[in-house]
Amino acid sequence: MTNKIIASLAVVLAVLVTPVSIMAQNKKALPGSDKPGTWEEANQGVGVAEPGQGGSVRKGANPAYQPWAAKLVLEAYNRRNADDYTARCIPELDLGGLSLYPNQFVQTPNLIVILIEVRHAFRLIPLNEKHSEDLDPAWLGDSVGHWEGDTLVVDVVGFKERLKGSKINTDALHIVERFTRVDYNTIEYSATVEDPKALLRPYTITSKYMLRPGTRLQEYVCENNQDPASFEELDKKGLITREK
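-> structure tokens emitted (244 positions)
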């Protein structure tokens, strides 16, 4: 078998294009799996947790920064992260998902697509391909994937630098993600992160995605923090840095 977890996700998530032969071969496809749904960071199991119930399953998101990068992170913390790129509606790679914002997986024989509700982002992951030699740096990087047994392995490089906010990275950032569907409702996720220009050492994040049957991606509007009155108020408090 060459197409494992996302083949079954494609059925679950009402994918537009999925070969019947792939679905037939998938051992984890279950009756009723053609119903639409999305995946998000696990909390209380199947379905959406009640407000205030459950906690994040994401572990290990504690990078050891080099001194210059740690200084920038501390400065961002003291400024309440007002200069973070996401405050300007710029997307970032949320490793392991966000508990309030689901993802949807779409599979074709040679391409995995991840639709991300937050900031209306998307990822294109060609299978069994190499990174281009002349990549244009991107906020979400450049992803290529392949199968190792039942695990989808995604290699991500080609990031734009982030030198403000609480998540610092340089153009040397390299991430390897692993998605394994361990049962009908659960995908186990891990990401190994290295950035020799900003980190003292690599680190690994682990998390889980839980199926949310019957849910759909919703519209996400980012106002880009361009409201003049709001900006003036933040500026008075010294929480805004204006680039020249």
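Residues 5-236 form one domain.
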